[in-house]
Amino acid sequence: MLKIIKLLQVLTDSNTLKIGRDYSANCFYKGKSMKNNNYKAVKRLDYRAPDFTATDIELEFNLSDDYTIVKSTAHYIRLTEDKKAPLCLDGEDLELHSVFVDGLVCKYTEEKGQLIIEDVPDEFDVSIENVIAPALNTTLMGLYKSCGCFCTQCEPQGFRRITYFLDRPDVLAKYKVTIIGPESGCGVLLSNGNLVESGEKQGRRYCTWVDPFPKPSYLFALVAGSFDLVSDTFKTKSGREVSLQLYVDRGAYERGLWAMECIKQSMKWDEDRFNLEYDLDNFKVVAVDFFNQGAMENKSLNIFNSIYVLVDPKSATDTNFFNVQSVIGHEYFHNYTGDRVTLRDWFQLSLKESLTVFRDQEFSSDVASRALTRLHAVDVIRSAQFAEDASPMAHPVRPEEVMEMNNFYTVTIYDKGAEVIRMLHTIIGEDNFKKGLALYLDRYDGKAVTVDDFLSAMSEASAVDLTQFTRWYSQAGTPVVTAKWAYDANEKKLTLDLEQKTPPTLSQKEKDPVVIPIRTSFLTGDGKEVTPPELSANGIIMFTKDKESFTFTCDEEVLPVLFKDFSAPVKLDAHYSDDDYKLMLEYCEDPFIRKNSSEFLINNYVKDHLESADNLPVPASIIEAFSHVLSDKNGDPLLTCQVLNIPPLSVLTELCHKIDFDALHTIRSFIEKEIAKALFADFSNLYAKTKATGSYVYNIKEMSKRSLNHLALKMMIVKLKDDKDEDKAADLVRDHYKKSDNMTAKLCALTLAVHYDLLCKEELLKEFEDKWSGDPLVFDNFFRVQATAPSEDTVKIVRKLMKHPCFDKTNPNRVRALVGAMALSNPVALNAKDGSGYALLSEVVRDLDKVNPQVAARILTPLLSFKRFDEARAELARNELLRIKSEKDLSNGVFEKIEAALNS
Ligand code: TRP
Ligand code: ZN
């Protein structure tokens, strides 16, 4: 309702007169529902080719501060034999003014999100004029305003909120776009492709852009506003000069320089590694403050959440720098895997996303650090993706049924999908992978295709049969591999018995065995790696059956080291002893195996004591292992830091079927304390040894050193807190904060102060608040640090911070930093015993669903797994789900998730 009233005020103010139209008959005025919820799921197998396609579309945007007039003329061709079939165009929240077919009045109806035009010839033009209200568009889908700038987000189905069109990825058209700037003036007017004309019309600036590449509507983009411009050029390997433009917030020029570096690195890397050269004369990136996700790969006009562009040492952390590089790479790499070859339908989303994530991971591996990139990727799988696979929203990498497509931009599609591509790479090898990708891009250039098309190209290029491999795309759930082995000293043979099982998920009870490449080596008792003749040249065991035995010839008893480099996204159930883990931790070169070994030492301890959390013995094995790592003078700081990490609660919860939050939290804190106490001297030395010298520079070596320094400081604080040495703890942290010159260090100190409730907490929070309240992006850390404090009291603090003048529920970054952080990264607060965490989340979701349903559905996620909570918590969480469900006009996205949870 509010929307309608606001729009009315806007329209009656002055603008109706200016363009000489009477808006009294518009749909907003009549109070027609703006929502288009039907709660209907679409099935993958129901795909039908479109009856018509559009070959060309000309768009004219008449931007005005309060509303925008969109005129479009599209050329349509009938594809179906059925001459009676009407043309059905998608549209949402549009106020339609006129429709002409070949310039003539025509018969049409407008209903349930569709414009249906009857009696059309085989080939014709449709001209449409409609009005939209970007300033009122808080969903951030379609055309909206972000801090005074106009921008668009069309993936997956936002174009229909701009004008009526065939808004589906298998309709590829050439776009010509004219943007007429608002009366108040405007900096730049951008769209995809090349600028072909610009000038002035009746006192207003306009620009016309032509994109020579046919594309689906989800890749359309428009930006209009005032920005600072970072420009540069890149010479492609064939000698063409590409002009690069990066548009950032006014005053943020310096903060854009790293992103520009990253654009050039990406362009170079795609040439070097995959022989892919940029295909237009310009490449534009725009950073905006209001954005639902990370970034968007619109052809030659990428639009980014400013958090993935703007960095400098004073305001951004090492992680921010790393992420900018990876997201810039990701969107740039979409130019081929996504834009040039696109999707037939949204069920194929992972075709572009998983391949592009794999490519961005390889980029980060080559230009930043392979070990760090890999360990991060594994973390995402084992914390978030395994949880998703065990949740009511579990879905295959290629889903079968979707109600709200926005719910499927998930860690399963992106990250498990990337693991699937990585397995393919492992199985067929780098050379065949390159050949396959080249064949795929060549064969399907300019086409909208499917996962099967991709696999057929890969199979053809490598001459490997991938039939069974496709099960990775069709089966949800995390396979569990059980491994048992025995050594026969007489025969000098080791027998490895493997078994695999994928647990049933809601919509798939029976699962078939998948192809599991197991990167393997064997360790002797004194830590030497041996390679038995039976192990294939690439060190891979291909495990494809429910059960299978493998035999290896070894002169002495050896320990099998399985899934090196996390060679498949599965859970391994192997009865390694603590000593086995210590052996692997000490002698295996593989970063993943080392980190995994320390993690599983801890897991073993946690599992053994879940039932007796109130009476815990000293975790001797863990302390011994940590001590050993700390004393290794030659250790790589990056790995040392990773290995000394105690897994977060979100990872530990995957150890239980029914989650006992209280026991897990108690045990985890206990382990942390015991390690800190036992190794205090080592951590103190380490802290001193890794102290910053000189001013901040971002690179992997310095970043690793800082991580290690921060880990040491944290462990010192844990010990001092345990000693009740409050003054010393506060002094150390305050000092660290004040003496540092960069955000990474300051945030480390601030986090310790808040999470361990140190005496300097209020002082540092105040200092941070005063310094950064004018810089929303940086200020988000103020919210996030407090929202992730592992205490039940955090719920009250989050509630209070929602009233902070810097909080804005219409900005997704603010919501994610505060409520999202509590919901997704703070199991202690979210699962507060009294249900206050659930209640707050539910309140926010109900409110936010009316403002930005996409973000509402996202932060709701942790509640869906309520059946894994203890009885009391499950009941509290379930009641909140029911409460949300009873809300009027619930969005498709929130509805779909709640239904899945309640029916699970
Ligand atoms: N395709 C984008 C990417 O992964 C992500 C994306 C999908 C997106 N839908 C979105 C971004 C909606 C912003 C808003 O690169
Ligand atoms: Zn992507």
Molecular structure report:
- By secondary structure, the protein is α+β, with helices and mostly antiparallel strands.
- The protein is built from 28 helices and 33 strands.
- The strands form nine sheets. It has an eight-stranded mixed beta sheet, with no helix packed on it. Strands 17-18-19-21-20 form a five-stranded mixed beta sheet, with helices on one face.
- A hairpin with a 4-residue loop joins strand 20 and strand 21.
- The radius of gyration is 28 Å and the shape is globular.
- Tryptophan (TRP) binds at residues 153, 155-156, 292-293, 295-297, 330-331, 353, 409.
- Its EC number is 3.4.11.2.
- InterPro entries: Aminopeptidase_N-like_N, Aminopeptidase_N-like_N_sf, PepN_Ig-like_sf, Peptidase_M1_dom, Peptidase_M1_pepN, Peptidase_M1_pepN_C, Peptidase_M1_pepN_C_sf, Peptidase_M1_pepN_Ig-like.
- This is Aminopeptidase N.
- Residues 578-902 form the Peptidase M1 alanyl aminopeptidase C-terminal domain.
Strands, helices and their partners?
Layout: H1 2-18, E1 42-43, E2 52-63, E3 68-78, E4 87-90, E5 95-101, E6 104-105, E7 108-111, E8 114-117, E9 123-132, E10 142-146, E11 149-153, E12 173-180, E13 188-191, E14 194-201, E15 204-215, E16 222-225, E17 228-235, E18 241-248, H2 257-274, E19 282-288, E20 295-296, E21 301-305, H3 318-333, E22 342-343, H4 349-367, H5 370-389, E23 401-402, H6 411-428, H7 430-443, E24 448-449, H8 451-462, H9 471-474, E25 480-488, E26 493-501, E27 516-519, E28 521-524, E29 529-530, E30 540-543, E31 547-553, E32 558-561, E33 571-574, H10 578-587, H11 591-609, H12 620-631, H13 637-643, H14 649-652, H15 661-678, H16 680-689, H17 700-722, H18 726-739, H19 743-755, H20 761-772, H21 776-787, H22 794-801, H23 812-825, H24 827-830, H25 836-848, H26 853-860, H27 871-885, H28 892-902
Parallel strand pairs: 2-12, 18-19, 19-21, 22-24, 25-33
Antiparallel strand pairs: 1-23, 2-3, 3-9, 4-8, 5-6, 5-9, 7-8, 10-11, 11-16, 12-15, 13-16, 14-15, 17-18, 20-21, 25-26, 26-31, 27-30, 28-29, 28-32
Zinc ion is lined by residues 330, 334, 353, 356.
Protein name: Aminopeptidase N
Domain Peptidase M1 alanyl aminopeptidase C-terminal: 578-902
Domain Aminopeptidase N-like N-terminal: 72-219
